[in-house]
Amino acid sequence: MEEAEVERERELRSRLSRQAAAHDEHVKDVLRVQQHELQTAFDVRLAGLVDRERVALQQKVAGWTGRMQGVDKALAGSSAFHFCVFAGLSAAALCLSFRAATPATFVVIPVMFQAVQFCRDQEISLVDAV
Fold it and tell me: Which end of the chain is more exposed for a tag (fewer CB within 10 A), N or C?
């Protein structure tokens, strides 16, 4: 009888071992599926966040680029405007300083003509400049 009990206990241990192994495999499979689902959800959420950040960054860069282009245009226009002012004032100073001298008129006229021509090319009025 003792031999039968030992055999039954061995059989019970074998069944429990198989059940534990089956349960272990089942738990591993469930964990793998959950991990895959969580990884997929994470990837989708991360992709959405990255896309939103990319769009926000592109908008900021476009704004910065626009501002820089505006500053460049303003500086280019401002420098042309200031050149016309300087040229106009220089020409006026030459006219005033050499008004009495007749030969100086031949020097002043080409300088004034160049200043006026430059300002016309830049679409800047000498009236606005002075």
Answer: N
* Amino acid, single-letter form, for residue 69: Q
The DSSP call for residue 99 is: S
Q: Could you tell me the residue range of the domain that residue 114 belongs to?
A: 2-129
Report pLDDT digits (tens) over 59-115. 988 888 888 888 777 766 667 677 777 766 666 666 655 554 555 445 555 656 666
d(CA 21, CA 105): 111
Q: How many domains does the chain contain in total?
A: 1
Specify the pTM: 0.45
- Are 129 and 115 in contact by the 8 Å Cβ rule? The answer is no
The CA dihedral of 115, 116, 121, 122, to the nearest 10 degrees, is 70
* CB-CB neighbours of 119 under 10 Å: 21
| Sole residue written with tokens 């679409």 | 123
Is residue 108 within 8 A of residue 98, CB to CB? The reply is: yes
Residues 6+ apart with CB under 8 A from 77: 122
Helix, strand and coil percent figures for the chain, each rounded to 5: 90, 0, 10
